[in-house]
Amino acid sequence: MKTALIFNIQKFCVHDGPGIRTTVFFKGCPLHCLWCHNPESQGFSKQVLWTQEKCTGCRRCEKACFQRAVSVNESIAFHDPSRCQLCEACIDACINNAREIAGDEYTISQLLNEIEKDRPFYEQSKGGVTFSGGEVMSQIDFAAELAQACKDRGISVVIDTCGYAPFSSFEKIMDSVELFLYDIKLMDPALHQRYTGKDNGIILENLKKLAQSGARINLRVPLIEGINADDRNIRDIIEFVQGINLVAVNLLPYHDIGKGKYKKIGGNYQGETLIPPSDARLNEIKTMFEQAKFNVKIGG
């Protein structure tokens, strides 16, 4: 039986495609963007999250862990992933809900049951389900089967993707998808490598091929001052997509709401100095796209 690793199912979303949507977040992403607001989505396996503010240092988690993967020192719980077998004993032992697992295995039928619960909202708002991540294409066989099952039930499917995958993955799923939310971050390949960990060649090529295949595409551009909100990058994006039939362009100003998550996974947030463009700059960028005859919106 096929399963996928899912780290969140979010209800009543209004920024992940048309109408009211249920967003299913697939775990695992080939990119590691400096500004990622879902760092728990990047790994391809389950992870233990720890919230220091909820922890009282009672040591129940330490005592429950037979692998000695957890140790507590001065109310700070240290987690050793190399010892952890993800048995969840420490989570069951925590009376303060300071520990949790990011990632659960779901079958097609289990996810369909969750998606179907919100059908009345889809019908009233012309919404549906959005597959997000992480990166959906990293679990493509499961995602394609789930998308087809949703389509067979008359439920609209939207895919939110970074575009970093073999194009064969898009071919497996595109017939079941109403709309692709496609990210373009940086046009310079060296800068893309620096800030996301990967070259952008396959991303740009896939966008061209997807458009040539007749897919409906919303281009999404996350904007971070000092990284990709400069005129050169914006002009290069506009030039690249000039011949592509896009439904819309969404300009997404940087936010740091995921900052606290890095500590939960035992990581360090590298984006302390990141800021969004000013409102004036966002409107300048919006005007640049509008002058190139694109339908543009600031926000999702």
Description:
With 300 residues, the protein is an alpha/beta fold. The protein has two domains: 237 residues, Aldolase class I (TIM Barrel, Alpha-Beta Barrel); 55 residues, Alpha-Beta Plaits (2-Layer Sandwich). The protein is 31% helix and 23% strand. The chain contains eleven helices and 13 strands. It has a nine-stranded mixed β-sheet. A two-stranded antiparallel sheet has the order 3-6. Strand 1 and strand 2 form a beta hairpin. The chain is globular, with a radius of gyration of 20 Å. The protein starts with a strand and ends with a strand. The model has no long low-confidence stretch (mean pLDDT 94).
* Total number of strands: 13
Poorly predicted runs are none
Gross CATH architecture of the largest domain: Alpha-Beta Barrel
Radius of gyration, whole Å: 20 Å
- The level-1 CATH class of the largest domain: Alpha Beta
Averaged pLDDT, please?
94
Q: What would the principal axes of the Cα set say about the shape?
A: globular
Major sheet summary line: 9 strands, mixed
Helix content: 25-40%
Terminus-to-terminus distance: 35 Å
Outline of the structure:
The protein is α/β, with parallel strands linked by helices and 300 residues long. It has helices at 60-64, 89-93, 108-116, 119-125, 140-152, 167-173, 189-196, 201-212, 231-241, 261-264, 279-291; strands at residues 3-13, 21-26, 47-50, 70-73, 76-79, 99-102, 104-107, 128-133, 156-161, 179-183, 217-223, 248-253, 296-298. Strands 7-1-2-8-9-10-11-12-13 form a nine-stranded mixed β-sheet.
